[in-house]
Description:
The chain has about 190 residues and is of the alpha+beta class. Helices cover about 20% and strands about 35% of the residues. The chain has helices at about 35-45, 50-55, 80-85, 110-115, 145; strands at about 1-5, 10-15, 20-25, 60-65, 75-80, 95, 105, 130, 150-155, 165-175, 175-185.
Amino acid sequence: MSDLRVAGGIVALALMSSGAVAFSKPPPCFDQPAAAAQAVRDALYDGDGAALAALIHREAGVRVSPAAFVDPELDRVLDPDEARRLWSDDTVHLWGYAEATGAPIEKTGADFIADYVTVLPFDTVETRPHDPGASPASTVDNATKVYPGAAIVEFPIGKGPEDWAVLRLAFASEGGCQRLVGLIRARWSP
Length: 190
């Protein structure tokens, strides 16, 4: 049996049979993509699955792309519940294929984020609007084709091809809020 209570804008769900109590507050609503992108970046660097889940589009989920080329057929899509468990789930998943070698990227969610996102200092730079022509990446940037009408924000690092990388975040409007639908890590590879 469960009991739902609302107090001060916070919803508390008490599961009477197990004695567990889960609390949640309304997810943050950012009307500007840059602010939503900063919140997503912070959740990734903090390893905060609950914060990340609250920022993901409820219907579309978030497609995670390990390279500049977004592959709708192969890239892994996470729903908010999967994102919430990203750092606690020990299941190994296929996240795509390495650009330079074509080797499968098989990792837990925590390992994928650590090895493909937070290993780079995207947390030290400011956002900029997506500029498909600014990429020295050796792979085609097709983000605007895969996410038509989405707001795409970038966190770029590096200047010349060998040290260049970018974290791209694509957002679609849901209920007047910008919600994450795409997470793309692009990096120069030989």
